[in-house]
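re: ur question from yesterday

yeah so i grabbed the chain u mentioned. its 206 aa long if i counted rite. heres the sequnce exactly as i have it in my notes:
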Amino acid sequence: MASSTMINLRELSPLASSAAVLPAHELRFNIPGVPLVEPSSASVEPVDNIMEKGMDDVETIIERGQLVHGVLYKLTEDDFARICSTEGVPFAYSLHRCRCIPYAGDGKRAGEDCLRRVMGELDEFNMKSTNEWGVPAFTLRAAREKWRRDDDIAPSQSYLNVLIQGAKEFRLDETYLQKLQQIEAGRTFGPGMAEELLRRAENRRR
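ran it thru and got these structure tokens back, copy pasting raw so excuse formatting
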């Protein structure tokens, strides 16, 4: 999520980026990693489709936290292929087609307000369409059905810190930032390696 992860660690050159919200999905930590070092990585998994339930369910989706805030990146074909390779597609992750709603982060509730506005402008026919709202995108979900069904594996504090760094950078909604900050880290030797790997990548690029 953090721009430094994309630019320095993945060595990509995004064409554009924006805060965005993805309804009817959940942030999961179901990609197994190295126990006691980096126990898990995050994925984005779909839940019951909001389009099948109608606009009246948007408030329920928000209340239950069945939406993911993050960053929408526009990439070249080469960079898209590179990120698939570095993230372990198709072995660890599978590409998942989705439609998300970009917003200008204000650190308050811009994402939820944007979601309500976009959904409120759709009639019943368009709400059930797959191409009448938001922006088409890809996200990453767990490649194996077993991982999708299993309980989450608590990530390292370092891994969480990198996610929180990105949320602050793009000024994602305050409630979502608080949700990230409240996730309990797993047991590791030290805080984990995610932040150190990012720092090393940043130093190499200087």
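noticed a couple things. The chain is about 40% helix and 25% strand. also Residues 10 and 190 are 24 Å apart (CA to CA).
anyway ttyl
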